[in-house]
Design brief:
Elements: H1 3-17, E1 23-27, H2 29-39, H3 41-60, E2 69-79, E3 82-95, H4 100-166, H5 172-207, E4 213-217, H6 229-235, H7 240-261, E5 266-276, E6 279-289, H8 297-346, H9 350-362, H10 368-403
Parallel strand pairs: 1-4
Antiparallel strand pairs: 2-3, 3-5, 5-6
Helix pairs in contact: 2-4, 3-4, 4-5, 4-7, 4-10, 7-8, 8-10, 9-10
């Protein structure tokens, strides 16, 4: 986290803790991602699973698998000289000899690595969702600005149409058309404001904002230059879901080791103290568990099959991810090319053409239908450019998330 983000997060938290009602917080994309890393519900839940896995390691590290056994027996014995009290006390402890404890520890440690990788995978997916929601919120805000400008121009056209109608230059039909154009522009702006509310709500939910607070995405759809394809492909190996599969393989291999260790006999050591007919005796006890029937067959077979399946899954998933990254990188390049074509050839003359068309209508060189046609084309061009910006930005986020560089 950069120094700027470190400074932004405490300010954000202070705003949220204020009692002054709803808060509107302005965030950049980097700040939104930093908050998601810290407080996204999906990330917090995934981190909690790591502690569950640590509990398994605590049990695996216990020195002895079985607790000591203590038993007491006693009762009266009838003899020729009368009734005597017999007593039998025993104590024993079993010991594993095949390395079962080491195998259980290896499996528990693999589970911790898996859950840690799963938490990183949850963070990757959460950041992807947050970034896309953020871009859509920015898109909605910029679309509102564009449509608000179009509404202003439509209002100006309406004013000009009223003036020319009063002067007898145009018919009432033209005035009605100008009014319809103004209403449509206002309706489009209002509808876009509704979309912004939905996108902002998605962003707030994904970040983990408390109730009564709202986020304003104060950024741009123009993202910095993205990594080259070679860098993206090199990063795929470290994707957290692949690391989780590798940990699962180690867990399965630990089960196989545990199954092999079960073929070794367990040894029990103990002592017994007996008192019979007034005589006392102390006896040492040695017990050996003979693995004649249960030799860990299920653990070995299941662990071997599971490890083979996971290795195949890891290999095929790695290939699929690389293919996905290549496709997303190509899509990103194509969308960037489309965006540059707009920026170089279409956008420079839009503002000038709108001003010329409005001036031509004002002086009577073109009719109102011609003006409305030109304006519709210009507004559509601006909206399409905005769509191209969003598409390129989304493609950049998608390729970064697929390669695993967005974490």
């Amino acid at each position: 986290m950069t120094l700027r983000l470190c400074a932004a997060v405490p300010v954000f938290v202070c705003l949220l803790q204020s009692n002054a009602g709803a808060q509107s917080v302005s965030l950049s994309l980097e700040e939104a991602l930093a908050l998601a890393r810290e407080q996204s519900p999906a990330v917090l839940i995934a981190r909690a699973r790591i502690e569950e896995a640590r509990a398994r390691l605590i049990g695996a590290r216990v020195r002895f698998r079985d607790n000591p056994t203590f038993d007491v027996g006693g009762g009266p014995r009838d003899t020729e000289v009368g009734t005597l009290a017999d007593l039998d006390i025993g104590f024993s402890q079993s010991f594993e000899t095949g390395g079962q404890r080491a195998a259980r520890i290896a499996g528990a440690e693999a589970a911790i690595v898996r859950e840690t990788a799963a938490a990183a995978e949850a963070r990757r997916l959460a950041l992807r969702a947050v970034a896309l929601a953020y871009l859509r919120a920015v898109y909605a805000q910029e679309r509102i600005g564009l449509l608000r400008g179009a509404e202003t121009v439509a209002g100006d056209v309406m004013t000009i149409a009223d003036r020319r109608y009063a002067a007898g230059d145009i018919a009432a039909l033209d005035v009605n058309m100008a009014k319809i154009g103004l209403v449509r522009a206002r309706a489009a702006r209002l509808a876009s404001e509704g979309e912004r509310t939905l996108f902002a709500g998605d962003l707030e939910r994904l970040i983990g904002m408390p109730p009564g607070s709202s986020v304003v995405a104060a950024g741009s759809l123009r993202l910095p230059r993205r990594p080259e394809l070679a860098s993206l492909l090199a990063a795929v190996t470290n994707r957290p879901d692949l690391r989780a599969m590798e940990a699962d393989i180690r867990d399965a291999e630990a089960d196989v080791r545990l199954g092999h260790a079960t073929k070794r006999p367990d040894v029990g050591l103990g002592a017994r103290m007996k008192r019979e007919e007034g005589h006392r005796a102390v006896i040492g006890v040695l017990t050996i568990t003979l693995p004649l029937f249960n030799q860990g067959q299920e653990l070995r077979a299941a662990g071997t099959a599971r490890a083979a399946r996971l290795r195949l899954e890891l290999e095929t998933t790695h290939v699929a991810i690389e293919s996905e990254v290549r496709s997303l990188s190509a899509a990103y390049a194509a969308r960037e090319a489309a965006l540059k074509a707009f920026e170089q050839d279409a956008m420079p003359g839009v503002d000038e053409n709108e001003a010329l068309a409005r001036r031509s209508f004002e002086v009577g060189q073109i009719s109102l239908p011609e003006l409305l046609l030109v304006r519709r084309e210009l507004v559509d061009t601006r909206l399409e450019y905005l769509n191209r910006l969003l598409e390129a930005a989304e493609a950049a986020i998608e390729q970064d998330a697929a390669a695993g560089v967005l974490q």
